[in-house]
Write a structure and sequence with these properties.
By secondary structure, the chain is mainly beta. It is built from one helix and six strands, in the order E-E-H-E-E-E-E.
Amino acid sequence: MILENTHSIDNPVILSQTEKSVSLELFIPEESDFFCGHFPGFKLLPAVGQFEVVTRFASKFFNIGTGASKIRRMKFMSPVLPDTKVNLSISYEKEKNRVSFTMCDSSVKDKIYSTGSYEVC
C-alpha cells in the first residue's frame, strides 16, 4: 500500500536567493498531514515537521541531502498554527557542511517560530 504524502507546500515564493542563502515565503495549509495528531483540539506544526520543511528546501536549493549527521542547535519559540504564512531563511556553509535556518511569521514583525543549524550527511 502506498500512502499519499500531503506534506505538500505549494507555490513557495522566493524572496531572495544567493549562492549561499535563500529566503522563502511558505503557506502551511490546515489540510497538511503535518497537523494530524498534534494535538486534538489545538493543531500545530510539530518540531519534526518544521525540521522536515527546512531539510526539504535546503536540499532543493543547495543540492544537498535531506539527512542531518549532527544537529548543532535547535530552538522552537512559538507554535506554527494551521494556515500560517511563514518566512523561511536558510543558509548553507559548504566548507563546514552546515545549514542554518530561521522560520518566522511573514506578517508579524519579530515573531520567530524556530531557529537552528545542523550538519548535512
